[in-house]
């Protein structure tokens, strides 16, 4: 997560220096850092699952893992809504074209 945020900041510096892209730099930086955090949360979920499977296979550890995964999924979901500004199931509303139905109309 720290590396992703660092790369995003380094990539944002040239666009901040240009007057024509300066206005959108903050939004791009914010999205990129948010995506790095989302990726980090997904990696942490995978690491917790692997640790529970390989190291500690007790019912208590599975319940703790379930709680941790639920919290991280809620964080990921809320962060994605914050980044995109819409609910995941409503993204087609802000897209240029509406989604195609299954009949190809």
Automatic annotation (TrEMBL):
InterPro entries: DUF1622. PANTHER family: SLL0939 PROTEIN. This is DUF1622 domain-containing protein.
